[in-house]
Amino acid sequence: MSDSAVSTSRALFERASVVTPGGVNSPVRAFNAVGGTPRFIRSAQGAWLTDADGHDYVDLICSWGPMLLGHAHPEVTAAVQAAVGRGTSYGTPTEPEVLLAEEIVGRTPVEQVRFVSSGTEATMSAIRLARGFTGRDVVVKFAGCYHGHVDSLLASAGSGLATFAVPGTPGVPASSTALTLVLPYNDRAAVEQVFAEHGDRIACLITEAAAGNMGVVPPDPGFNGFLAETCRTHGALFVTDEVMTGFRASSRGYWGIDGAQEGWVPDLMTFGKVMGGGFPAAAFGGRAEVMGHLSPQGPVYQAGTLSGNPIATTAGLTTLRLATDEVYDHIGGVAETLKTAAAEALTRAGVPHVVQSAGTMFSVFFTDPAHGPVRNFEDASRTDSTAYAAYFHAMLDAGVYLPPSAYEAWFVSAAHDDRAVQTVLDALPAASQAAAA
Ligand code: PLP
């Protein structure tokens, strides 16, 4: 697309770059990994985004997961408008909080939830609770699993497996990651080793229920169950982060297609994205025995001025009530169609790739299948980012907004109808050729 075709986005981006670092309010929105100007979106309807210059795009980002029903769903919009008319925040308990908590408890194995405003707060609070409950300090996480911008979790692996982590970004003091252990994903031997060495100090192990933040990397069969059992043996809590997968990978999150089948239950879970229906709402939850340690019932402090905000909880509740089995069937079908077509087009163009899924989530890795499936961060890092950048821009020019990074899931919604799907299918051959060039 020529520069003049996106002149309004360009002008806004230039102004934004003066008053906002990098011109964006979250780094994933920038086009640093693919080059060019991020589109400033003026409005969205169903499966479509419209930018400030009037171009329409099929949205395969869906706000990085939340928009399960598509944009501006009439029933969600009406419920939110009615809620706004009743006042936007009271700082008191409200009925929508109870209803949304009941909906989440009904779909997942948690007995109680506490609402917060972002996934970051959810994981941060879950870790504090795990530490308060166990009286231990050490946290184990996996490389490539993202849990928000919590200091102790913005950590990179230490020099050896059982060596404590180092800060993953300037601004995080070494003391904040000195109690974090970072392991390779899907590596049972590494988990066994650190629990053998540090088991009696480990408060919790936190993992994405299925990794989605290094592209979609599902746990090996039985891996999550093994983690649950290892934690149980050593008296540590098993925390599954379902901020991305919750109410998205299936109606009951990734747990619905993993733990629910295999018969294990996490001690704590975190949720976000879909449960806020596009508003800032997130939660952490677990067994009543563990959750009871939270203030005001217990001693572990946790709070939030806008936690359980009536507009956000209304949007989330309406979204979840509309997220029926038919919705998940539709999303699963669209995902299947798109990933099959993407793989075929790349094969025809001779571009090495690997396509992976976790429930209805999927992503396309520009990696060589000769290396086998992508099982961890090291595998994901083999991605050909240059090929992806060419592919991304060809798709964008053809009216498809993919994530501007090769390490992301592609998200679809209940509103991705035949017209939206066909637009993507039509764009794939030329984009695959562009990636091959
Ligand atoms: N956990 C996971 C698995 C996520 O994917 C994210 C965000 O992408 C977070 C936590 C952090 O959520 P938020 O961006 O709402 O703070």
From TrEMBL:
Gene3D superfamilies: Aspartate Aminotransferase, domain 1, Type I PLP-dependent aspartate aminotransferase-like (Major domain). It comes from the Bacteria. Pfam families: Aminotran_3. Its cofactor is pyridoxal 5'-phosphate. SUPFAM superfamilies: PLP-dependent transferases. Keywords: Cytoplasm, Isomerase, Porphyrin biosynthesis, Pyridoxal phosphate. Its EC number is 5.4.3.8. Pathway: Porphyrin-containing compound metabolism; protoporphyrin-IX biosynthesis; 5-aminolevulinate from L-glutamyl-tRNA(Glu): step 2/2. It catalyses: (S)-4-amino-5-oxopentanoate = 5-aminolevulinate. The keyword Isomerase applies. The modification N6-(pyridoxal phosphate)lysine is found at K273. It is found in: Cytoplasm. The keyword Iron does not apply. Homodimer. PANTHER family: GLUTAMATE-1-SEMIALDEHYDE 2,1-AMINOMUTASE, GLUTAMATE-1-SEMIALDEHYDE 2,1-AMINOMUTASE 1, CHLOROPLASTIC-RELATED. Belongs to the class-III pyridoxal-phosphate-dependent aminotransferase family. HemL subfamily. This is Glutamate-1-semialdehyde 2,1-aminomutase.
